[in-house]
Design brief:
Helices cover about 25% and strands about 20% of the residues. Helix 10 runs antiparallel to helix 12. It is of the alpha+beta class. Strand 7 and strand 8 (about 195-200) form a beta hairpin.
């Protein structure tokens, strides 16, 4: 079983592009180090240490296949696009789970161990060795003595000890992390500056235990060993030192973020980081929509373009840049848990409290027509929210099909039997009318198809285009009725943050459907508490069925592969993706990122061909290495 997405990360992953327009100019960590000399930090008293138990059996993994290319070269500049500007540079707290502050900034925060992207193996990262105890609760770790923060200070056991203090503080205003420490982390024990153990409060199945302990440290010196009451304000735009290959070098309000590679990065020669993270600079500019991104890409102002819309793949790639091979296209399949993109229904909204209403809406949505017309038949319907989670998946679940008769049956049962003059169903004075809050106009045609079909059944959808700031505020405040979005997910599902009633009716958490069901709560707690692997997987399938039957999520279409276009001088290894990749040109991901590189010789060849009008090969690379078995 492939184990994926182990980091404890709270965040929303939009399937719809949007833009933040707030920002600031900030110092890079290295510049920060120059202006804040080490003597300005408080002298902190080290945490006490204990004697290391004898008889520990240490393990590492240095023989697993590497997934980078020996052909990779260092150098060059990569220019990408982000659809929103971060609201903060904090890793936690309000607004930290939105925008590129997760994908870009958090991506330079390394963990003790990382997952192999193609195999069921853990690989060394900040830790060189570990000793997993068969109690399902305890692991000992040896921290690499050479590991360094981006301000030059060593990573020590005290930084991991501080992690629990930091994440449990109410001053960070991050309930998920507060809850995680309270529920799961019993203690972190220091044995010397580079040896720790992490102890969970309760045992978990072996296939998840290490994942719960693959923590990232917090730079204790940077925070002066404390979390002040004004943490949110004080650190809103502070650049926290990181342990990864890049640091934030420059940013301009609402315009761009620039990262610079650390030339003497402490991990550059380690087995699983060698030949990765190759470009010297990575600049991410803010672009409002996909059409503008594509225009800038064809002008050479962006290095790559991830193709998510059918029109770009089928209709917009017949220009000279493509037919002459200056720009290349690639398609690579993956085999991973599918991102649960779809409509999330707020079960506390007055029109959506009745399950029959939610079921009726599900059968009023014509996604078959959406796939045929909007996606040109180039997508599959997502079956349910946890498709692709292996033995944890309930493979019997299917999405609601477009069925006007069945939709009418459920809606009538919910009391929506009458219609107004426009044909919209009524229940008393309430109209069955909803607003689809949409942060990108590119998806309007898809929603228009759904609107045209649903209105025939008596369900009205109004499309409201908003900017990203409004969108995330609506989600955070739970003021929505039906919202189109997607959550980041893992191969081992976590249900509590999505469905537990302790999060219902409260702001700033992932239970955006406001689900509150005592029976479901009990199933979730049993799932979390059992260590028996088979029992846990069985409970997972039961939870999926129960949540599916609540009808608070309506799946969209999904794509079991990714497509990209790139200028010829940016090269990806073969295969271009990994088993869990969503792009060949990710930079900030410790498991799959930084595998591509800039080829200066190919740049010269392509430049000469463009000047001379010479054709290069324009074949499309289609890689099916990781195509799932039917």
């Amino acid at each position: 079983m492939m184990i994926r997405s182990k980091k404890i990360v709270l965040g929303l992953t939009l399937i719809l592009s949007s833009l933040f327009v707030i920002g600031c100019q900030c110092l890079a960590p290295e510049d920060l180090a120059k202006t804040s000399a080490p003597k300005e930090y408080k002298e902190l008293t080290p945490y006490p240490s204990q004697a290391l138990p004898s008889g520990l059996v240490w393990q590492t993994e240095e023989d697993a296949p590497v997934f980078a290319s020996p052909e990779a070269q260092k150098g060059g500049k990569y220019i990408g696009a982000i659809s929103m500007f971060p609201l903060t540079l904090r890793m936690v707290g309000p607004d930290s789970s939105s925008g590129p502050s997760r994908g870009l900034i958090y991506g330079n925060k390394m963990s003790l161990i990382i997952e192999h992207p193609n195999m069921d193996k853990w690989l060394p990262a900040l830790a060189s060795h570990w000793s997993y105890q068969n109690d399902g609760k305890t692991t000992y770790f040896k921290i690499r003595p050479e590991a360094r923060w981006s301000d030059g200070r060593p990573v020590t056991a005290d930084d991991f000890m501080f992690y629990t203090e930091f994440m449990s503080s109410k001053n960070i205003m991050a309930p998920f992390y507060n809850n995680y420490i309270e529920e799961w982390i019993e203690k972190i024990v220091k044995y010397d500056d580079h040896t720790i153990s992490i102890h969970l409060k309760k045992a978990v199945p072996d296939d998840e235990a290490l994942g719960k302990m693959a923590l990232s440290p917090m730079p204790r010196h940077f925070y002066n060993g404390e979390v002040p009451e004004d943490f949110i304000r004080r650190y809103n735009w502070k650049v926290e030192p990181n342990t990864g290959p890049y640091y934030l070098s420059k940013m301009r309000k609402g315009k761009y973020i620039l990262f610079k590679r650390k030339k003497n990065w402490w991990a550059k020669d380690l087995n699983y980081f060698k030949n990765r993270f190759n470009v010297d600079y990575a600049k991410y500019i803010v672009v409002r929509n996909s059409d503008k991104k594509f225009r800038l890409f064809k002008k050479g102002k962006l290095s790559t373009f991830q193709i998510t819309e059918a029109k770009h793949w089928f209709d917009k790639t017949n220009s000279r840049e493509f037919t002459y091979g200056f720009i290349r296209k690639l398609e690579a399949w993956n085999d991973k848990n599918r991102t649960p993109g779809g409509f999330y229904l707020n079960s506390r909204h007055k029109l959506l409290k009745d399950r029959n209403t939610r079921l009726g809406i599900g059968h009023a949505l014509n996604f078959k027509r959406v796939i045929k017309e909007f996606f040109r038949g180039d997508r599959l319907r997502l079956k349910h929210a946890y498709e692709g989670t292996g033995e944890y998946e309930n493979k019997q679940l299917l999405p609601p099909t477009f069925n006007p008769k069945l939709a009418a049956k459920y809606l009538n049962a919910a009391g929506w039997g009458k219609r107004d003059k426009k044909g919209i169903r009524m229940r008393g004075r309430d109209r069955l009318s909803f607003t689809i809050t949409n942060p990108t106009k590119a998806n309007n045609p898809m929603f228009e198809i759904l609107r045209e079909e649903a209105v025939k059944i008596g369900v009205e959808f109004n499309i409201q285009n908003v900017d990203s700031t409004q969108f995330f505020k609506i989600i955070s405040n739970k003021k929505h009725s039906i919202i189109p979005m997607a959550f980041g997910s893992g191969a081992i599902p976590r249900y509590r943050q999505m469905y537990h009633s302790s999060f219902a009716g409260k702001e700033n958490n992932n239970n955006v459907t406001n689900t509150s069901d005592k029976k479901l709560d009990a199933m979730i707690e049993a799932y979390r508490n059992t260590r028996n692997g088979e029992e846990r997987r069985s409970l997972s399938r039961q939870i999926q069925k129960y949540a599916h039957d609540l009808a608070v999520f309506i799946p969209f279409a999904h794509q079991p592969f990714f497509r990209e276009a790139h200028w010829r001088w940016f090269r990806a290894p073969g295969p271009p993706g990994t088993k869990i990749s969503s792009t060949a040109f990710a930079l900030f991901d410790e498991s799959t990122g930084g595998r591509f590189w800039f080829d200066p010789d190919m740049k010269k060849l392509t430049d000469r061909a463009m000047r001379d009008g010479t054709k290069l090969s324009s074949d499309i690379l289609i890689d099916k290495t990781f195509k799932p078995a039917p």
